[in-house]
C-alpha cells in the first residue's frame, strides 16, 4: 500500500504534515575526501506553516531541499540523520516505488531554475500526462481539470498554458506551471527552491503572493529555500538561517528580523536596504562564504567573518562548533557568546582592546 502524508489539524482545519529533521548530515565526495555540505541539522516544520530556509550561495540549502525528497545525487549522499514526515515515515529510509511515489505525489517540489526545467520539446499538457503515467493516475480527465483549476487560481488560462511549449511562456508563467505540476497530484508538503530568482520585481511579488494563497487554500506545509532574506520576510512564518552547512538561527520570522541574535543573521539583514528601511544603513556582509573545502573543521564556521569575534575573540569560538541553544520558546541560536547571555555585538571596550 502507498503511504500518504498525514494531514494535521490546526484550529479545526486540515493542514499539511509535520516534518521533523533530526541530525541530518549530507556529504559530497570530493578529491579531498567526503566533505559535509549539511552538518547535523535539526529543523521542525510545523503543520500548515511556511518556513523560509535562507543563506548565501553554497551554504547547503539546495542540498537540504534535495534531502527532503531523498533525492541527493552522486557524488553526494545522506550520511546520517532522519527526516520524519507524518504518515510517510523517515524519507531517508524510503526507496524504490515508495520513494518515487512520495516525490511529486505526497511531496511537491519546484527545483531551482524551474523556469528552465520544463521539457522544451513537449507541451505542458503532454508533460502533465507524463506525470500522470509515472504516478499511475487513472482518472486523467480529473487531473487535467485539477491542473486547469490550479492554473486559473494563479491567474493563467489553463487551456492556453496546457497547449504551450516552454518558450511560449514568460519566466513568471513557467514558475507558476512548476507550482501547478508540484501540487496537481495533491501534495501536502511543498518544497520550493529559489522560487523567485531570475524574475523581475513585479513577477517576484506576484509569485510570492500566489505561494501564500495556494499554501493557505490547500493547507500545505511549505519550505521556501532562498538566498534573499527579503523573500523570507514576505512569505514565511518561520525562518531558518543556514551558514556553512549549519543552521545558525531559527525562529518566528518577525522576531528574527526585528531582533536577530546570530551575527550572521544580523549581517544578512543589514545588507538589505528594504529591510533596514534606510539605504544609507545597508552594508554588504564583508568576506565570502566558505566552500566545502574551506569550511573550518574546528570551532564556529562563521568566525572568520564575524564582527563579534573580530571584536572579542573567544576561545570556544575557535575550538568548539556551537550547538543550537533555545534562547526563548521556538527561538534557537548556535553562537557561543549568545548562549552565554552576551549581546550580539561586542561591548565597545572589548572591540577597542582588540582593534
Ligand atoms: N555535486 C556536487 N559535488 C560536490 N560538491 C557539491 C555538489 N553539489 C553541491 N556541492 C557543494 O555543496 C555545498 C552546498 O551546495 P548547495 O548547492 O546545497 O548550496 P546552496 O546554499 O543551495 O547554494 P546555491 O544557491 O548556490 O545552490 C557547496 O559548497 C557546493 O559547492
UniProtKB/TrEMBL annotation:
Subcellular location field: Cell membrane
Keyword tags: ATP-binding, Cell membrane, Membrane, Nucleotide-binding, Transport
GO cellular component, one term: plasma membrane
Molecular function (Gene Ontology), one example: ATP hydrolysis activity
Keyword check for Transport: yes
Gene3D superfamilies in the record: P-loop containing nucleotide triphosphate hydrolases (3.40.50.300)
GO-annotated biological processes: peptide transport
Stretches assigned to the ABC transporter domain: 19-269
CDD domains: ABC_NikE_OppD_transporters
Keyword Transport listed: yes
Source organism superkingdom: Bacteria
Originating organism: Actinocatenispora sera
NCBIfam families the record matches: oligo_HPY
Name of a matching Pfam family: ABC_tran
PROSITE patterns per UniProt: ABC_TRANSPORTER_2
Record-given protein name: ABC transporter ATP-binding protein
Amino acid at each position: 500500500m502507498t503511504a500518504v502524508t498525514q494531514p494535521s489539524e490546526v484550529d479545526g482545519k486540515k493542514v499539511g504534515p509535520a516534518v521533523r529533521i533530526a541530525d541530518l548530515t549530507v556529504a559530497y565526495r570530493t578529491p579531498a575526501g567526503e566533505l559535509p555540505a549539511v552538518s547535523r541539522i535539526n529543523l521542525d516544520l510545523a503543520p500548515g506553516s511556511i518556513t523560509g530556509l535562507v543563506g548565501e550561495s553554497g551554504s547547503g540549502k539546495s542540498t537540504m531541499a534535495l534531502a527532503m525528497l531523498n533525492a541527493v545525487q552522486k557524488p553526494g549522499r545522506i550520511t546520517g540523520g532522519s527526516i520524519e514526515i507524518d504518515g510517510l515515515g523517515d524519507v531517508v529510509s524510503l526507496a524504490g516505488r515508495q520513494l518515487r511515489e512520495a516525490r511529486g505525489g505526497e511531496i511537491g517540489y519546484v527545483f531551482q531554475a524551474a523556469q528552465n526545467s520544463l521539457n522544451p520539446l513537449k507541451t505542458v499538457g503532454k508533460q502533465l500526462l507524463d506525470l500522470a503515467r509515472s504516478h499511475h493516475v487513472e482518472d486523467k480527465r480529473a487531473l487535467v481539470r485539477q491542473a486547469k483549476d490550479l492554473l486559473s487560481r494563479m491567474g493563467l488560462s489553463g487551456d492556453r498554458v496546457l497547449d504551450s511549449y516552454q518558450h511560449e511562456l514568460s519566466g513568471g508563467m513557467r514558475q507558476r506551471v512548476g507550482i501547478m505540476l508540484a501540487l496537481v497530484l495533491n501534495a501536502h508538503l511543498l518544497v520550493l527552491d529559489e522560487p523567485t530568482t531570475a524574475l523581475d520585481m513585479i513577477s517576484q511579488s506576484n509569485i510570492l503572493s500566489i505561494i501564500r494563497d495556494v499554501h493557505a487554500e490547500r493547507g500545505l506545509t511549505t519550505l521556501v529555500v532562498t538566498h534573499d532574506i527579503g523573500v523570507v520576510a514576505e512569505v514565511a512564518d518561520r525562518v531558518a538561517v543556514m551558514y556553512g552547512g549549519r543552521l545558525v538561527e531559527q525562529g518566528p520570522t518577525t522576531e528574527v528580523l526585528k531582533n536577530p541574535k546570530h551575527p550572521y543573521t544580523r549581517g544578512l539583514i543589514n545588507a538589505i536596504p528594504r529591510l533596514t528601511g534606510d539605504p544609507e544603513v545597508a552594508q554588504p556582509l564583508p568576506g565570502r562564504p566558505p566552500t566545502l573545502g574551506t569550511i573550518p573543521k574546528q570551532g564556529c564556521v562563521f568566525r572568520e567573518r564575524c564582527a563579534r569575534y573580530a571584536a572579542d575573540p573567544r576561545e570556544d569560538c575557535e575550538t568548539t562548533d556551537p550547538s543550537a541553544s533555545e534562547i526563548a520558546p521556538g527561538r534557537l541560536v548556535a553562537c557561543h557568546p549568545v548562549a552565554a547571555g552576551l549581546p550580539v555585538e561586542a561591548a565597545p571596550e572589548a572591540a577597542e582592546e582588540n582593534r
